[in-house]
Amino acid sequence: MASLNKDLIKKNIFKFLEYSGVTDISFAYLLSVSDKQIKRIRKGEAEFSIDNINKACDFFGMSVLSLNSANLDVDQQFRSKLIKKHRRNDEYIKLLVDRPSISYAIKYELLQNDKFIDKSLTVKQIREIFEARGWLFTSAYISLSLKRNSHLFEIAINPTKKGTFLYSKK
Q1: 3-class secondary-structure state, position 134
Q2: C-beta atoms surrounding 139 within 10 Å
């Protein structure tokens, strides 16, 4: 039997967390730890407990051995599949029907959205895309997140409205 690699398991838990769209705060709640503890684990200052790993495996629908794999592919529809899988589990479904993390909304909704792919949009128009999904983010939060993910976008000054920007997919 192969030995378990705790760093690989941690990396894969955070990878699946990203694809699930669940926020760190919600995931901390699920694991019954503080959000500070999740931040410490991300930074390598702490580790997931065995109970935390087992709970994550249950939530993500996989075994510890599969989380110990270096070549894990994640389906782009992972969140949708989790919603379907956990639709009768009150503890898990709550995390999945809540608004996802902003990074999830940007990477897996905005960058796949036909309207966004076809033309440059303002933050207001991007906000409308998210609102159509029932995800309410403030314009300031969206703007900040787009700037933090500038490696994914072309950002140009809006020629028709002073002081605003247009965002398009790189």
Answers
A1: coil
A2: 12
Read off the DSSP letter of residue 121. B
Return d(Cα 59, Cα 41) in angstroms, integer.
Answer: 18
SS3 at position 165: strand
Q: Is 117 left (phi over 0), alpha (psi -120 to 50) or beta?
A: alpha
* pLDDT at residue 116 in the model: 94
What count of other Cβ atoms lies within 10 Å of the Cβ of residue 142? 21
Regarding pTM above 0.90, the answer is no
Cβ 12 vs Cβ 72: under 8 Å:
yes
CB 71 within 8 A of CB 111: no
Confidence of residue 162 (pLDDT cuts 50, 70, 90): confident
Q: Residue 157 in 3-state DSSP? A: strand
Give per-residue pLDDT as tens, 81-96. 999 999 999 999 999 9
For residue 68, the Cα-to-chain-centroid distance in whole angstroms is: 21
